[in-house]
Amino acid sequence: MPPSSTASTRSPLLWVPTGYFTMALGYTMLCSVTAIMFKNMGMDNGRAAAYSSMLILAYTIKPLFAPLVEMYRTKKFFVLCTQVLMGLGFAGAALAMSLPDFMVVLMPMFWLMSFIGATQDIASDGVYVTSLDTRTQSLYCGVQSLSWNIGPIVASGFLVYLSGKLHTAVFGHDAATFGPDWMQAWQVVFFIVAGITLLMAFWHLRFMPEGARAENTPTSVGGAWAILSDAFITFFRKRGVWRMVAFAFLFRLSIGLLEKIGPFFMVDALAKGGLGLSNERLGIIYGTYGLAAVLLGSVLGGLFVARRGLKRTLFLLCCAVNIPNVTFLVMSIYLPSNLFAIGAGVIIEKFFFGFGSVGFMIYLMQQLAPGKYATTHYAFGTGLMGLCGMVTGMVSGHLQEALGYVSYFALVMVATIPSFLACWFAPFPHGEGEQLEASAGTEQAVQQV
């Protein structure tokens, strides 16, 4: 795939939005939408949540293999290769669904694709950081964030909606019956994702810049390991590090328990304690209104912290993340049939989740990350968050099946207590408002993981 001679002169608007949309589309399909697909195809909640959550691992540990991306070829080369492989992988997954024991083939494929997708994230971030100067990075930060969030809207909203429409209107099956009949609809969805991803690869071949190599890039696996080893050592020497680790892991504990089970509750039959929604309604409520509420909450949460400061607001932000989860407990008790009431419950939970989660990211930037390996230590913090989501997701379905929806959502509320404690005792070793600074030299070798 030869580089384009004019790529470096193209506007970032030609590749930043499409690059981050493609990253988010693959991640959301693998780590979120697959849970709904497994559920539709007749899998119990325990296995559906566990299988989907396993795929988060690669995105959690990507700091460990990020330096290898720096060592070989160009960042654009990795972006193009991973996008082509992801496109072929989604097409292969659609074909694999026709096999008699398709899960034996499908899960290893998804597992491999998750590592390819994580590599795509590393390389795409690398192109963004090394192709744009600091001022331009700041200028396009909003475009970057918005483009990423369009990915979940398309995947969790439009494509989940489309799966339901195809299942009933095109293939003529009963929306309320889960089982193998759903395979046809999801095969079409996966072929669509494959087509979009391959199209983006060809687009980026033409318009994406190469991306510069970072300074002091490791030239061997041993050199990369030495950098990571030093980053780990310096991380655990930070003042108050274990309380910061507890904060990073526990802040979103209840959200991790709710993330997979919330949509399952929406589509499960009334006889099983669910709300009995179709995929079409789930896509509209969860993937469109819910994600719009997250975006609005994030903007307002950022303004709130900017005006009042993080230290004064952190516990309030923790309350915003955790307390509105009670809406699912209320819905599981009363089982509303009114779509306005159901949508309002989801919007409230998602809005306050977006509002409060801003505090988590800012805390990592201002308190956990600063130092010699600022970007890497920030990645460690987000990795702990991902680890929490993976662990809670893997056990959530089994717990829900054992407890039922009402008792499970009560357990979710109990799980807010560790979050409150971790937030209350979170240390502030750096001054209020201290900014995250990129470190020099070896830090750049693992930048943007």
TrEMBL record:
Keyword vocabulary terms for this entry: Membrane, Transmembrane, Transmembrane helix, Transport
Source species, domain of life: Bacteria
Bilayer disposition of the protein: Multi-pass membrane protein
Mind telling me which InterPro entries this protein's record contains?
Answer: AmpG_permease/AT-1, MFS, MFS_dom, MFS_trans_sf
Q: Which Pfam family is one of those matched by this entry? A: MFS_1
Residues annotated as transmembrane: 12-36, 48-65, 77-96, 139-162, 182-203, 241-258, 284-306, 313-334, 340-365, 377-399, 405-426
Where is it predominantly found?
membrane
The places in or outside the cell where this protein is found are: Membrane
Major facilitator superfamily (MFS) profile domain sequence ranges: 12-430
Q: Does the keyword Transmembrane apply?
A: yes
Q: What is this protein called?
A: MFS transporter
State the taxonomy lineage.
Answer: Bacteria, Pseudomonadati, Pseudomonadota, Betaproteobacteria, Burkholderiales
